[in-house]
Amino acid sequence: MKSLLAACSAVQSEVDAAGLGALAEESEPIALYDRIVTNARIRRATRGLFHDGYYALAVEECFKSVNDTVKELSQVRDDGASLMRRVLSVKTPTLALNNLQTESDESEQNGYMDIFAGCMTGIRNPRAHKAEYLDAPDRALEMIAWGQHLMQKLDRARLVSKRSNVTGSDPSP
């Protein structure tokens, strides 16, 4: 009987993770999550945790995913804020979020470098280094949505060639 219950629980978890479970009330946190969070990588990392009420851990995992994506795209081994400052630097970028041709482009790159770095120190790290960190569902969802926005910026980022300027097509929205 225990193995049957375990099997049923595992199937239900997979159904829930795929967003195919019974519809929750529109105002319930998981229903809002399902409407807002569409990035596949973030959903894989956070949906089960968010559904089970582990909001702070879901936020932490979201920003770990952002960090890991920057590492993968850049092939740089740093971590956290130092990774973001190194990879998204205006002077020597590894990843370009735009064409880096105008003052506005440079301002955007610099601003997002600070935002990415700030998210590592101000959002990810406190949850990673403090036991029993608590977030309310609405606050957690706001941060996860912000992490999703950063992932969208990374989806359009380009690797900067060492010999030339920016490679690839225009990453602008």
Provide a concise account of the structure shown.
By secondary structure, the protein is mainly alpha-helical. 64% of the residues lie in helices and 2% in strands. It has helices at residues 2-17, 29-36, 40-51, 55-74, 80-87, 103-129, 137-155; strands at residues 95-96, 158-159.
Give your account of this protein's structure.
The structure is a single chain. The protein is mostly helical. It has one domain. Helices cover 64% and strands 2% of the residues. It contains seven helices and two strands. It has helices spanning 2-17, 29-36, 40-51, 55-74, 80-87, 103-129, 137-155; strands at residues 95-96, 158-159. A two-stranded antiparallel ribbon has the order 1-2. Helix 3 (40-51) packs antiparallel against helix 4 (55-74) and helix 5 (80-87) packs antiparallel against helix 6 (103-129). The radius of gyration is 18 Å and the shape is elongated. It starts with a helix and ends in a 14-residue tail after the last strand. Residues 164-173 have low confidence and may be disordered.
* Strand order across the largest sheet: 1-2
**Uncertain regions: pLDDT < 50 for 5+ in a row?**
164-173
Number of domains: 1
Largest sheet properties: 2 strands, antiparallel
- Indicate the mean pLDDT: 89
- Helix/strand structural class: mainly alpha
| SSE succession | HHHHHEHHE
What is the radius of gyration computed over CA atoms, rounded to a whole number of angstroms? 18 Å
The level of helicity is 55-70%
- Hey, roughly how much beta strand do the residues contain? under 5%
